[in-house]
Write a structure and sequence with these properties.
Rossmann fold; Ubiquitin-like (UB roll); 6-stranded antiparallel beta sheet
Length: 358
């Protein structure tokens, strides 16, 4: 199960006016626990203004192409954690960091001949950089097309690094910047925002549907929904579409959905954590299983509490639960009994939830 470790901030790089990247010094004894897969994230536990904040940030480094462990944090308007990390964090500071998690990836194989199609917007480039560096290093027969939307050139995070990779791997990495405020003379296809119509045109002009394509999407909510809509209309197999939701995006999606059907009654829920069991009587229309266990003093893992990350992932080994929202688990994980405990409520009379089964 994922645990927090105290890590020292080794390096801070100002990437843009409102974004920094952060490198952590990983002690030798913890390196195995901090091994990761491209596209995963780290969860930080911060103390800002006397309050504990937990936030997840994607890794922008590659597990095979880089020797460092680096995340990127873009300042969000009104965001207490992102503002503190951008303005107050210094090298040498110590932070509580959870071991890597996340499902925004596909397995690498040197024999693959895939075409990875990446749609990113703003800070959604962070996991994409990890993915594309890993693909370039691990799959010599695969190629990548990156469509990256931003306000203007100054807002492009990792621009120098992306340009250098494109120059080095020109036959395998194609980069297309779509800017709301582009340089004069920019073709219309690469101006404005990534609407559904523009996404369809970009795919038609640069991708086609006959290749061995796999799609990754990360960025602002409307952009991601536009890309997903187009891919659905093109009848792309859902198994080939990977979407990474950030917490704010998921909150907007949840707000637009109707409330889940509420059930009545109380269930007896057994929670297993680190080999210990605790039993709770939990109303079926009340607090989540995670909240009940946490309020009772169990050291249950969590980060976003929004169904976005999979930090609170556990397995139902007996009984049934319902999840209000799920932006993190794959269909296969759900079919095998895994749940997001922050979104889960008991349905059957007896339920057993095991955090130790991974």
């Amino acid at each position: 199960m994922a645990r927090f470790h105290t890590l020292t901030v080794k390096e801070i790089t100002r990437e843009t006016a409102d974004c920094v990247s952060i490198v952590f010094d990983i002690p030798e004894a913890s390196k195995q626990e901090f091994s990761y897969i491209q596209g995963q994230y780290l969860t930080l536990k911060l103390h800002v203004g006397g309050e504990e904040l937990r936030r997840s940030y994607s890794l922008c480094s590659s597990p095979v192409a880089d020797s460092e462990v680096r995340i990127a944090v873009k300042k969000v308007d009104g965001g207490r954690a992102s503002t503190w990390l951008n303005n107050e964090l210094h090298t040498g500071n110590k932070l509580e960091v959870m071991t890597p998690m996340g499902n925004f990836w596909s397995a690498m194989d040197a024999a693959n001949e895939k075409h990875y199609v990446l749609f990113a917007g703003g800070s959604g480039i962070t996991p994409m950089l990890s993915i594309l560096k890993t693909v370039l290093h691990s799959e010599p027969k695969s190629r990548i097309s990156l469509f990256y939307g931003n306000r203007d050139e100054q807002a492009v995070i990792f621009k120098a690094q992306i340009d250098a990779l494109a120059a080095q791997h020109g036959n395998r990495l194609s980069v297309f910047h779509i800017l709301e405020n582009p340089a004069p003379g920019t073709a219309a296809l690469y101006t404005g925002i990534l609407t559904a119509e523009k996404v369809a045109a970009l795919i038609e002009n640069h991708i086609g549907l006959n290749g061995n394509n796999e799609y990754f999407i990360c960025g602002p909510g409307p952009m991601m929904e536009n890309v997903k809509q187009v891919l659905t209309q093109l009848r792309i197999d859902s198994k080939l579409i990977h979407i990474e939701y950030f917490q704010a995006v998921a909150e907007a999606v949840k707000a637009a959905e109707t409330a889940s059907t509420q059930t009545a009654g109380t269930s007896k829920v057994t929670v297993i954590l680190d080999g210990e069991e605790k039993v709770f009587d939990i109303p079926q229309n009340g607090s989540s299983i995670l909240d009940v266990a946490y309020d009772a003093g169990m050291d249950v893992p969590f980060a976003c509490k929004g169904g976005v990350c999979c930090t609170c992932r556990a397995k139902v080994t007996e009984g049934q639960v319902r999840m209000d929202h799920n932006f993190a688990l794959t269909d296969d994980e759900v079919s095998r009994g895994y749940i997001l405990t922050c979104q889960s409520h008991p349905v059957s009379e007896n339920v057993v939830v095991n955090f130790d089964e991974f």
